[in-house]
């Protein structure tokens, strides 16, 4: 397994378990995690996992936003 910036959130253990089981996952990541650990997110995707963006941070309650505000928050992840 490639050594990349995974130590902060235990991704090595999860990735190994997925690989051993021949499984793939949909992984929700926020924009700040993508900015902080881009290589880890790319490695997850390269291993066949789906990356789902759900917003820039976990501090915003999407249900409190209008539809347009929700779209803007999700697009900010890209």
Write a structural description:
This protein is mostly helical and 78 residues long. It has 4 helices and 2 strands. The chain has a two-stranded parallel ribbon. The relative contact order is 0.18. The mean pLDDT is 81.
Estimated share of beta-strand residues: 5-15%
Largest sheet: 2 strands, parallel
Task: Tally the beta strands.
Answer: 2
Series of secondary-structure elements, N-terminal to C-terminal: HEHHEH
Q: Strand order across the biggest sheet? A: 1-2
Helix content: 40-55%
Principal-axes geometry comes out as: elongated
Total number of helical segments? 4
Low-confidence stretches: none
Tell me the distance between the termini. 27 Å
Q: What is the arithmetic mean of pLDDT?
A: 81
Rg for CA atoms: 14 Å
Output the keywords.
single chain; mainly alpha; 4 helices; 10% strand; elongated
Concise summary:
Helix content is 45%, strand content 10%.
Layout of secondary structure:
Layout: H1 11-21, E1 26-29, H2 31-36, H3 38-46, E2 50-53, H4 67-75
Parallel strand pairs: 1-2
């Amino acid at each position: 397994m490639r050594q990349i910036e995974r130590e902060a959130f235990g991704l090595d253990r999860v990735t190994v378990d997925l690989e051993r089981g021949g499984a793939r996952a949909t992984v929700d990541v926020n924009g700040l995690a993508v900015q902080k650990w881009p290589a880890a997110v790319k490695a997850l995707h390269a291993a066949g996992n789906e990356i789902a963006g759900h917003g820039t941070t976990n501090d915003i309650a999407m249900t409190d936003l209008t539809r347009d505000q929700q779209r803007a928050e999700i697009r900010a992840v890209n």
